[in-house]
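Our consortium's second objective concerns turning raw sequence data into structural hypotheses that experimental partners can test. To show how far this objective has progressed, the report includes one record in full. It was chosen at random from the queue rather than selected for favorable results. The single chain below, 121 residues long, was entered without modification.
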Amino acid sequence: QVHLVESGGGLVQAGGSLRLSCAASGSFLTINIMAWYRQAPGKDREPVALITKSGTSTQYADSVKGRFTISRDNAKNTVYLQMNSLKPEDTGVYYCNAAVVGVDYSTIDTWGQGTQVDVSS
């Protein structure tokens, strides 16, 4: 079984920064695409950023371009989200998502439990 554990959320003032981490553990062969999603109160979960296995390709939601940076450390099976110039509308629960290749070579769409980010105005 594979687990994703997020950390780094918290309360920050507008204009501040936070760095989220998501570490994978368990039995698996490799992890392909890793991504961050978020869900604001009363809204649907939305994609924020994704990164390919090599780390050479990334994509961002328009609302976070230029402010957020996704990166990964494959040796640690960890993905990061550096969030700068935070705005109150960035408030929500941030979820890590990973395409994990299991020992049977099947791909498992895996989610973390989420970490709360609150940005005060």
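The partners drew two points from this record. Residues 21 and 98 are 13 Å apart (CA to CA). The two ends are 40 Å apart (CA to CA). Both points have been shared with the crystallography group to help prioritize constructs.
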